[in-house]
Amino acid sequence: MKKCLLLFASVLFFSCSAYVPVNVSPQSSSKEYELETSKDDLYVQVNNWMIDSFENAKSVIDFSDKEAGIITGKYLIGEVYSASNNYGLTDVYATVRVQIKDDYAKLTVTPENYQYIDSGDVSEDHKLPVEKVNRQVNTLLESFEQYVAKN
What we know:
Elements: H1 2-16, E1 20-24, E2 29-34, H2 39-53, E3 60-65, E4 70-82, E5 88-101, E6 104-111, E7 114-118, H3 130-150
Antiparallel strand pairs: 1-7, 2-6, 3-4, 4-5, 5-6
């Protein structure tokens, strides 16, 4: 009986709070790097950088073509509560694409559009305003620059 009352009270509590869906359309960012490294060496460095940077198991290298000099990955930015997922957690990703040639690399990070619920009931960890996404994208760009510069 206590469990039923607790369940009823929690449903009543959550149904009274205001859920405001926030639509987010982050901008893509890219940066070009002039390096003194062969295409083959850059290819290995970029793969290693992605392995090191993609700490979450949901972040993966999707496509890799050494001849074309393209490596593409899916990077988990975070999780949000979303109305589109019945108010459950939804993963938010960015596509990370690196194009490489001899002495040159171009990194492009394109976060996907998403929606999150803004409510007093939702933890700040599960809200993902565009400023937070921009910080993560900039961190990835800086991480790449530091990685290829030291190797």
